[in-house]
Amino acid sequence: MDGTHATTNASSPSRDTTYAVNSELTLERYSSTIFQSLRRTDQRKWAHAYLQGLLVTTGKKSVRRLATSISRDPSVVQSLRQFVSLSPWDFDEVMEELTRWVKAHRPEPVWSISRAVLPKRGDRSVGVNRYFDPSSGRTLNCQLGLGSFLSVGGSQLPVDWCLHLSTAWTQDPERRREARIPESEQYQPLWAHALRLVDRLSARTGSTSSVVLVDMSDEPDVGHLLHGLSRRRRDFVVAVPPHLAVLPAGESAPAPVSARTLLAAQSLERAVVPLPGGKQRATHLQTSLVHLTGGSQGSSPGAPYRLFTEVVPARTPVPLWLTSLVHSTLADTGSIAALYPGTMDAIDSMEQDIGLLDFEGRSFPGWYHHMALVSAAYTYRRLHERTAAPSHHTARRVP
């Protein structure tokens, strides 16, 4: 990623590609397009084999099980392991091609960013650390990835990833060397990774109007993300911590108050929120116009933002959302926030069905290679749904 994965000097295949949008697409054609940036024929062959294995293997997607699902040749195990962990190919180029593929299917103008918590045993896998997982309420030994997703027909499709590296990894030369972490990779907080994903997706798509949707409800420095998005003139819907200090708009000298306290004092407003798949939900929301704190003393408070939350009878915590879309209706902004559970469902589906959790390698390049392959497999399944277990004849043809 970001040029850190070595590539060969051979010329790239032609990029004059017509992106198929029909559901009858073969896996061979899809694979040859998504992985056309791989320089060597054998790399593209093993990319297709690994992709096929992810789609047809049931249960745990270990390299050995992938190989067994697609071939009876015992050498395939080592070849797949070599391809994903050691072969020099560029994650960015593959994900750029995947982004083009998804974009051809006319995604919604919303970029969803979400984290993937990948539990690991031991401390050798790159980036593994002790992290608190808000969804489970537990502290886990895991890798922490942040992914960006595009929405097509109610499906959230992954088009980029960042691996969070703690200072325990970035400041340890021996760990860096063993995991093959590039010099350019240094510690960044989650909000900085989110901005990094936004910048990369902006460069790939050229879109200036897509709205960023992200849950940062446990990020103490969420203000850096909010100001960063504002500087980029990027509209957003961001779940913020309940204790975030905001300034009520419309008051001559407002005093800071927590987001939760301010919303709790607001009256209910009824809204009919459009949901993915053409459905609707009647609900009640609390909302208030606010300014962010952090400006210089005596300066103008800047543009207002809308703080809102849904009021539901369940006891489970409900996100508090902050958005720059102050001129949109509550129903419209609520419909954007309603896309976020679909992103979490996509990550869960990749864990359960596509092998997101099953990478056995330990290196930085290998992690990104696996994430690219899993993302490509999941996107094919969601858009084309034609995967079936290969026949023995097909399996034997895999070298």
What this model shows, in words?
The protein is α+β, with helices and mostly antiparallel strands. The chain has 14 helices and twelve strands. The protein has helices spanning 27-34, 41-56, 63-70, 75-85, 91-103, 167-170, 173-179, 190-205, 222-231, 259-264, 330-337, 340-354, 364-384, 392-397; strands spanning 110-119, 129-133, 138-152, 155-163, 211-215, 236-240, 245-248, 257-258, 269-274, 280-292, 305-311, 320-323. Strands 1, 2, 3, 4, 5, 6, 7, 8, 9, 10, 11 and 12 form a twelve-stranded mixed beta sheet that branches. The longest helix is centred in the last third of the chain and has 21 residues, at 364-384.
Set out the fold topology.
Blueprint: H1 27-34, H2 41-56, H3 63-70, H4 75-85, H5 91-103, E1 110-119, E2 129-133, E3 138-152, E4 155-163, H6 167-170, H7 173-179, H8 190-205, E5 211-215, H9 222-231, E6 236-240, E7 245-248, E8 257-258, H10 259-264, E9 269-274, E10 280-292, E11 305-311, E12 320-323, H11 330-337, H12 340-354, H13 364-384, H14 392-397
Parallel strand pairs: 1-5, 5-6
Antiparallel strand pairs: 1-3, 2-3, 3-4, 6-12, 7-8, 7-10, 9-10, 10-11, 11-12
The averaged pLDDT comes out at 87
Question: Largest sheet, described in full?
Answer: 12 strands, mixed
SS-based class: alpha+beta
Low-confidence runs (pLDDT<50, min 5 residues)? 2-18, 386-399
Strand content: 15-25%
| Overall strand count | 12
- Estimate percent helicity: 25-40%
- The best one-word shape is globular
Tell me the span between the first and last alpha carbons.
28 Å
Note the total helix count. 14
What gyration radius follows from the Cα positions, in whole Å?
22 Å
